[in-house]
Amino acid sequence: MSKGTPLTCIDKTIMSVSFDQNEILQNIVTLHCPAGIDCDAPDGYGGFYQTIPRPRYCFDIAPKKPEAVP
């Protein structure tokens, strides 16, 4: 791969910069954990999971939703 060539995965080009958190998270899942995310330690409100499946385990020091456990 030459310098400046975009990294591709299947038919999708993965860009190194984005202004959309959903796109960034989907790109991370595509590249690093195609089976999905297993755990989110600082879950908070779970706002990341609008476009991808929620992890099996969600934790937070002060849970804001019942899906997360302290």
Helices and strands in order:
Blueprint lengths: L6 E3 L2 E3 L6 H12 L6 E2 L16 E2 L12
Parallel strand pairs: 3-4
Antiparallel strand pairs: 1-2
Residues in β-strands, percent: 5-15%
Ends apart, CA distance between termini? 45 Å
Enumerate the spans where pLDDT stays under 50 for 5 or more consecutive residues.
Answer: none
Structural class: alpha+beta
Number of helices: 1
The succession of helices and strands, N to C, reads EEHEE
Trace the largest sheet across and list its strands.
Answer: 1-2
Any idea what the radius of gyration is?
15 Å
The major sheet is characterized as: 2 strands, antiparallel
Could you tell me the mean pLDDT? 77
Helix content: 10-25%
Per the principal axes of the C-alpha atoms, what is the gross shape? Answer: elongated
Number of individual domains: 1
The overall strand count is 4
Question: How would you portray this structure in words?
Answer:
The protein is α+β, with helices and mostly antiparallel strands. It has one domain. It has one helix spanning 21-32, and strands spanning 7-9, 12-14, 39-40, 57-58. A two-stranded antiparallel sheet has the order 1-2. A two-stranded parallel sheet has the order 3-4. The N and C termini lie far apart (45 Å). The model has no long low-confidence stretch (mean pLDDT 77).
